Amino acid sequence: MSDIDIVVFEDDLVARLQPISLARPSYAITCGAARLMDWLPLLSPSVRGLVRPHLEQIQEVDYPQLMPAESAALAAPDSLIVNSRLVPSRGMFEKLRALVREPRAVTVRHQGHLAAAWLPAAAGIDPLRSRDELTAFEASLQSATNLPLELPLFTYPHDVIRYHLETLVGNLEFRLQRGKYREIADGVFLGPGAKLSPHVVAEAADGPIVLEQGATVGPFSLLRGPLSLGAHARVNEHAVIKDHVAAGHTTKIGGEVEATVIEPYSNKQHHGFLGHSYIGSWINLGAGTCNSDLKNTYGKVNILYGDQKTETGMQFVGCIMGDYAKTAINTGIFTGKIIGVCSMLYGYVTTNVPSFVNYARLFGQVSELPADVMISTQRRMFSRRNVEQRPCDAQLIRDMFELTRYERQLPDEQLML
After folding, report:
1. For residues 254 and 235, what is the distance between their CA atoms, to the nearest angstrom?
2. Within 10 Å of residue 322's Cβ, how many Cβ atoms?
3. Domains 5-147 and 158-409 share a fold
4. Rounded to whole angstroms, how far apart are CA atoms 215 and 33?
5. How many angstroms from the chain centroid is the CA of residue 62?
6. Domain residue ranges in the chain
C-alpha cells in the first residue's frame, strides 16, 4: 500500500471540539488509548495533514511524519482523504483498509459530513490540497459512490469519552498483537522497563492491563482493566486506577481514577476522584480535587456548549478539561462541566469555565489571565520535565488567547446540574 497518498484534513466543525482541539490537531486527540495519526501510517507511510492556521507550525515540529498536504506531488498516486475527526479505533482501521481496495472512487459520510474518500488515480478526481478548497473538493466528489459504512466522527467533546469506552479493549488487543510485551499474569502486559511494585492487585477479567516502556505502579495499588499506561507514566502508591483509564506518556496519577483519558504530561498525583472525563496535556489537579460524573437524579447528562444545551445520552459524564488548566486543592467540579485552556480553578466549579481565567466563582471572583502569565507558567512547567520551551509553544498560547477571547465576553452562565 506504499503508493497510497493519505491526506487527513480538519473541517470547519473541528471548532465544536474545543477546548480539547485548541492546542492540538484533532487527529492527535487520544481516544481508546490511540490517536488517528497512530493508525494512518499503518496504511501508508505518506500521510499529509491539513490543519488550522494556528497549528501549522506545531504540526511541522511536533508531527514531522505528517507533511503539509500542499507538498503532495502534482502527479499524485491513489489518494485516501480522511476527516481528522474520525474516531480512532481498530474497526475504523479495518474499514479504511477495505476501502482502499475499491476499484472506484467512493465516499463515506457520517451524519451528512465527509468521513473518508478513496480516490484511485484512474478516477481523475484531484485530491484535497488546502483547507480553503474543502467546498470545491466536496463538489468534485459528486461522481463518487457513497458507501453505507459506519465511520463515526467526533461531534462534541463528550463523544471522546463515549467512544473511548467503546474502543479501548479492541485498540489494546490490536496493540498487543503488534508489540513486544511480557505477560506477567493473565491479561497483564508490561513493556520494556515497566514495573509493578509489590502488593499491587491487577484485575484483567474485563480487559487487558497494558504498561508501556518505563511505566511504574507503586505498592498497594489496584489496577482494573481495560487499562493503558503510557511510556514512563507513574501510578503512585495506594492508587485505584480502574475500568477504562488511558493515561498518556509522562503522566503522574494517584487517588481514584475511572473511565478517563489523560493526555501526556498531566498530573493527578494526590487523593481525590476523577471519573468519565477527558484531561488534556500539561494539566495539574491539586490535592483533593474531585469531579462528579453522575447527577443526583441519575438522569442523562446535558452539557452546555456555548449557549446551546446538548443532550449527551450518557448517564456518566465528568469534566472536559483543556490543556494547561490547573486546579487548587480541594476543588470540586460539578457534573458535565467544560474547562477551557489555561484556566486556574478554585473552590466549587458549578458552571463551564472560559479559557484564560482565574475562576473562583464561589468567592465572587472571575478574572482574565493574560497570555504572558501563561507563557511564563508554561516555561516553568516545561523546565520541571526537562522540556524546552520553543517559540512555537509560546506563540500557541498567544494564538489560543485570541481564539478564545469571545468566551470571556459571554454573559455569565447559569448553574446547570
Report:
1. 6
2. 27
3. no
4. 15
5. 15
6. 5-147, 158-409
- Cell numbers given for 371: 497570555
Nearest to 275 by CA among 190, 378, 164: 164
- Joined together, the cell numbers standing for residue 148 give 453505507
Please report where in the chains the cell 480553503 appears, as a residue: 132
Query: In a 3-state reduction of DSSP, which class is residue 339?
Result: strand
Helix axes 371-384, 391-403, angle to 10 degrees: 140
Pick the closest to residue 57 from 407, 404, 395 (CA basis): 395
Tens digit of each residue's pLDDT (9 = 90 or more) over 3-35: 799 999 999 999 999 999 999 999 999 999 999
Q: How many CB atoms lie within 10 A of CB 89?
A: 24
- The answer to whether the CB of 356 falls within 8 A of the CB of 369 is yes
Decide which of 3.100.10.10, 2.60.40.10, 1.10.1660.10, 2.160.10.10 is the CATH code for 158-409.
Answer: 2.160.10.10
* CATH hierarchy code of domain 5-147: 3.90.550
Q: What is the DSSP letter of 65?
A: T
Asked if residue 300 lies in contact with residue 313, where contact means CB atoms within 8 angstroms, the answer is yes
The one-letter amino acid code at 330 reads N
Cell 479559557 belongs to which residue?
A: 355
Please give the Cα distance from 163 to 251 (Å, whole number): 22
Rg (the chain; Cα; Å): 21
Task: State pLDDT tens for residues 81-98.
Answer: 999 999 999 999 999 999
Identify the burial level of 56 via C-beta atoms within 10 angstroms of its C-beta, where 0-12 means exposed, 13-18 middle and 19 or more buried: middle
Give Cα 231 distance to the centre of its chain.
17
Instruction: For Cα atoms 120, 90, 33, give the angle at the middle one, nearest 5 degrees.
Output: 125
pTM of the predicted protein model: 0.95
Cα(216)–Cα(239) distance, integer angstroms: 12
Please state, as a whole number, how many other Cβ atoms lie within 10 Å of the Cβ of residue 256: 18
CA–CA separation, 34 vs 52, rounded Å? 22
| CA 154 vs CA 27, 49, 412: distances in Å | 11, 18, 27
Pairing of strands 261-262, 145-147: unpaired
- Greatest Cα pair distance, the chain, in angstroms, is 65
CB neighbour list of residue 357: distance below 8 Å, 6 or more residues apart: 340, 343, 344, 366, 367, 368, 369, 408
Please enumerate in sequence order all residues whose Cβ is within 8 A of that of 383, keeping only pairs 6 or more positions apart, or say none.
389
pLDDT band at 71 (very low <50, low <70, confident <90, very high): low
Instruction: Give dist(CA 199, CA 330) in Å, integer.
Output: 29
